[in-house]
Design a protein that fits this description.
The complex is a heterodimer of chains A (258) and B (280). Chain A is α/β, with parallel strands linked by helices and 258 residues long. Chain A has helices at 45-52, 75-82, 100-105, 116-122, 126-138, 154-167, 184-200, 212-218, 241-248, and strands at residues 7-16, 19-29, 34-38, 60-65, 85-88, 172-175, 205-209, 221-226, 229-235. Helix content of chain A is 34%, strand content 22%. In chain A, a hairpin with a 2-residue loop joins strand 8 and strand 9 (229-235). The chains are: A alpha/beta (258), B mainly alpha (280). The interface between A and B is medium-sized, with 34 and 21 residues.
Amino acid sequence: MSFPPACVLGKVGLKIDGRPILEAVSLQVGPMERVAILGPSGAGKTTLLRVLGASLAPDQGAVQILDKNPWQLKSHHLRELRSQIGFVPQDHALVPNLRVWQNVAAGRLGRAGGLRHLRRMTLPRAQELRALHGVLEQVGIGDLLFATTSTLSGGEQQRVAIARSLYQEPALLLADEPVASVDPTRAEQVMALLVRLADENRLPLVVSLHDVALAQRHTDRVIGLRGGRVLFNLPSKELSATKCEELYALPGQEETPR
Amino acid sequence: MKHDLPPGRRQPVRLFALLSFALLGVLVAGLMGLMPGDLIPRESGARTAMDFFQGALHPALQHNNWVPPNAPSLFEAIAAATQRTLLIAFAALGLALVFALPLAFLGAECTWKGNTSLWARWVPKFTRLGIALLRSVHEYLLALLFLAAIGLSPGAGVLALALPATGILAKVFGELLDEAQTRPFLALENLGATRATALLFGTLPRALPDIAAYTFYRLECALRGSFILGFFGFPTLGLGLRLAFEEGDYPTVWTYLYALIALMVIFELSSAAMRRRLRS
């Protein structure tokens, strides 16, 4: 393919409070590729996503996001890079007492703007409101444009967070445990939505998940993370049951000692 | 069989600390010779008290003492004094608000967290020192100082109320900002917003209802403060009260007190309505 990969990590290592969270993680995310990061709780999935989102600097290894090394950039260039990365956090990180449209409009606060941000967040032009409404329609909650965010259900709030990332007009979409707290039917819906949005906007998509079958149904490639190390990195169809068991085995049950 | 419980306190010490503090207070009051019996007045005192409270039943409706023939009526005088009381309070709090918000951000921990520059080290320290200094002198002491320095101008009264109000607003706003959730702030930083932008739209909105509610409370304090400024000669409601009190004219004292009470009730009702709207 003529496009460069969206993310390249080379032997990335990261410690938090002296405890290794990621060790020698190497991976690539191709342009328009859909990748799932699988692994048990505490495997380092969120940390890995934050490295991919240029919000956490690793201690070791090489990071290349959208063809740039974020940690060699000057701060305003780093902000510019971050404004091109849509990150849907697990807890949504919305301001509860703002209106839905304001939380979505916050997606563009990463752009240069200064005082214009104040106007956009308080007195939006009709054209801006139409754009915000359009993004909310894309995630299926257009009617909630003027609702107070805290009155929304968890699922709706997640869609607001997704809409905020879309409004950024990103070049890369990351989602941390987007189905962590929904039932299987809604999990299917959310994954389908993320994949559709990634397709429509021609974005590479990286999602962290627990559910192997769900990942296999919706993504091209699965990366298994265990104890901060990559256990497998395979096309979704090639993932075998033994690999999965190894990934989720409780400590002491590992069949292949390392 | 020996059964070990996990480490940790069984219950917080707050309640115990609070109760012992209250007990200590009662003990100290006893040591100072404060006895409930002392609160029963002597005969002459009882008479004065009776006069005073009887005034409550017959507040003055017109001037009880001699006034120049073309002087405004008592109600006109009270209306004008009420207006000045309100103006001084609003001006003082408006001024305080303008300076308190930036000071709160400069002194708040959330503004500087993770920033390792020399600015991040010293600006919040000096800001908090400044805020503490603003709070350290009571408004009536400042009123006396400004009275001596600038004289009996409304500006002196406004400034005397505004300086400590700036300090207390900045301190409380800073605490409210630090208490607000940091997740939206971090999310905005992660999508490329500058720290200032992320604070303004990620942190401030969550704290804003509490900031507004506290501002209303301080406005109420400023209204009472403005009333009391009259005792120092500023032409607010307190001046009329003081003059009437000095003449033992209790009915007029009560007229002024009722004016204050009415003012506070009206203010409380309107600010409660406003707060409800801000919260929703």
